[in-house]
Amino acid sequence: MLVCSHCQFLNPDDHNFCQRCGSSLVQQTCRYCFAKVEPDQSLCPQCGSAVTRRWWAIVSGLTPPSSQDQEICLDSQQRYQLTSLSQNGGEDDPEVEGMVCDRQPSQLTSVQVLREQMALHQGTVDMTDPTAVKSYVQQSGLVIPPQACAYLSLQLQFPRAIPALHDAWYQNESADCPQAQILLLDDRSTYPELLSLWGNDSLPAAQLLRWLNEMTDLWIALEPWGCCPSLLHLSNLRVEQGQFLTLRRLYSEGEESCSLPDLLQVWQSLFQETSPQRQQEFAPLLQELAQSSSWQQIEDLHLLLNQVTTHWEAEGREAGEVAFVPDNLASILRTTPDWTCGDVPTAILPNQLIQLEAVGQTHPGRNRHHNEDFFLIHQHLQHLSNPSARQVYVQGCYVLCDGMGGHANGEVASALAAKTLYQQMQLHWQDTLPPPALLEQAIRHANQVIYDLNEEKMNTGLARMGTTLVALLIQDTQARVAHVGDSRLYRLTRRGLEQMTQDHEVGQREIDRGVERKIAYARPDAHQLTQALGPKRQESLHPSIQSLELEEDSVLLLCSDGLTDNDLLEKHWETHLQPLLDFHTQLEEGLKQLIELANQYNGHDNITVVAVRVKVRSQLPLIF
């Protein structure tokens, strides 16, 4: 099947245009500028970016080609063209790794379909158990190499640390040759190696400790699959976004299984690359780890690292501050309560904001002649840069309102609510993020202003003006979210799309009372609002407020229901939202494409979206 890059509809393989939206299935779309690119072009004619999808191929049991000059495809359908390769295995079991170019990026693979099905069935099938996963795959009818099952399972558990599997299959090289195994993965070969960062003395000690903890977590998950050697190849340990440990690929155990002392040896090798000062900081810990005979259970090692972290925190050290492992580590371990691994917190390194961009767009909708939506963006940015670091300090207020009460009244209510909230924030927002009570007070004030105007004009019934509201306040890496009604906030990260607010409407209210979703939304008044600004006195108003921590690169989306109706974002986030995580992608053009999609599928209402894109990094000391 061919998946339309515009609407994600599945089309027959022999179609050139999408049956649902009419978009070309042979043209590609540049992920950076969204220009249309012909199928025979590898570069975007508008911005020059590469548009073909590339995957990292791992091939076992296939004789490598004698020349790289010839055009070689890994599959019989001539879809995956090999562009670079290297041989890793021996003569008895040759293994080839390299880059492949996907000539049919719109063609959905069976592995991709299986991956989505596994994600949906995590609640009913233990996707961490190799036996259960292999049985699930077998029942699906898909025949794939055993290691492909490991990728599918582990990537569900560690979406950032394990590269996603794109395709996998067996292939016979010849009639008298055993089957070759071919895996195609997300390419992480360009990520920096952990070893290259480990020796950076400007990194806080807590970051190194965090990486050690992440390795123990991965070891526990890799062990049932026989993939612990993945942590023993230093070149396989990579870092994403300067702080997140990730694996380039999975390695399986050979005839001899690996053990925990092998992992400790890797840690010793890492610390050998650090300065004498850094080695001195961790000397007591390294001495404990050197007694490899004492560490036979990964849970004990995990507990040791967490106890060191807990001791640092007990002495009042900040997570990012350079800290020394105590000399009396042994006595600490003897006196520390016997917690289980899951009960002990792991130190999280503070983050800092290094880039922020915000864009808003609105459209009346294809079936509307006026627009009752309103959005407001106000942000104050300060940039700090030096040869070793850069940082952004921000105070940002982002508001979206969806008015109601007719042409004149709806427009007035939405604009009045947004501007009133902003004015209240201007009066009371100092150097720290306003507390929830202050934000609620500002929302109640906006409600009162609209309510008083209704009373003054003697508006009644449907003519009584009102509006929904969703507001986002950002102070550096701290954020506060408030909403009233069915306007929503979504958070997009590399892990996927997450709805952060719950609609204030009858259907959701019934669900909160224990009614099944299907029954709750079968009511004729299911989408009737239970909360809005303006129609009623503030005594009946109960805004929802929550706090967020910006811990990773994200796009925060404030949306009116004209955009979110019919689960539009949930169905199309991979094609229309995921590219926006890349700061090379034009955010304004991306929102334009999103509104066009909403007009095509919804269009019955005004459509408004505000996108706030943030890039964060580990908090490193600034050097002046």
From TrEMBL:
Kindly name one Pfam family recorded for this protein. Answer: DZR
| Residue stretches making up the PPM-type phosphatase domain | 353-614
Task: Tell me the CDD domains matching this sequence.
Answer: PP2Cc
GO MF, one term, reads:
protein serine/threonine phosphatase activity
Q: Which InterPro entries match?
A: DZR, PP2C, PPM-type-like_dom_sf, PPM-type_phosphatase-like_dom
Q: Which SMART domains match?
A: PP2C_SIG, PP2Cc
Q: Which NCBIfam families match?
A: PRK14559.1
The name this protein goes by in its record: Protein serine/threonine phosphatase
